[in-house]
Amino acid sequence: MPVYDPYKHHETGPSSPARRHFAISPSDDLDLPIVPKAVYCEAAGALAVQDETGAVLIYTLAQGQILPIHARRIRATGTTATVFGWV
Fold first, then answer.
1. Where is this region: Disordered (predicted)?
2. The predicted structure's pLDDT at residue 27
3. pLDDT at 59 (0 to 100)
4. Exposed, middle or buried: residue 27 (CB in 10 Å: 0-12, 13-18, 19+)?
5. What are the two backbone dihedrals, phi and then psi, of residue 31, each rounded to the nearest 5 degrees?
6. Which of 4, 30, 45, 74 is surrounded by the most beta carbons within 10 Å?
7. pLDDT of residue 13
8. Where are the domains of the chain?
9. Is 39 helix (H, G, I), strand (E, B) or coil?
10. Measured between alpha carbons, how far is 21 from 34 in angstroms, rounded to an integer?
11. Gap between the Cα atoms of 53 and 8, Å rounded
């Protein structure tokens, strides 16, 4: 039986729930395959986030914390947290 999705045709925005998720492998050289609407912290630690301008900031995240940022890259240098991207 097909799955009923009443939200299938709704437009998604920054405040709407994510429709997809993906594991993030930190890299100093590679951009993320998809720019997420937010990053979810699975395991607490530091997160080195690079934005679209190339600026890098390090956030300290608790387990379960959501960082609502459109990250271009999660850098390996400075990152100790385990995170997932929400799209």
1. 1-22
2. 98
3. 98
4. middle
5. -70, 160
6. 74
7. 78
8. 21-86
9. strand
10. 10
11. 33
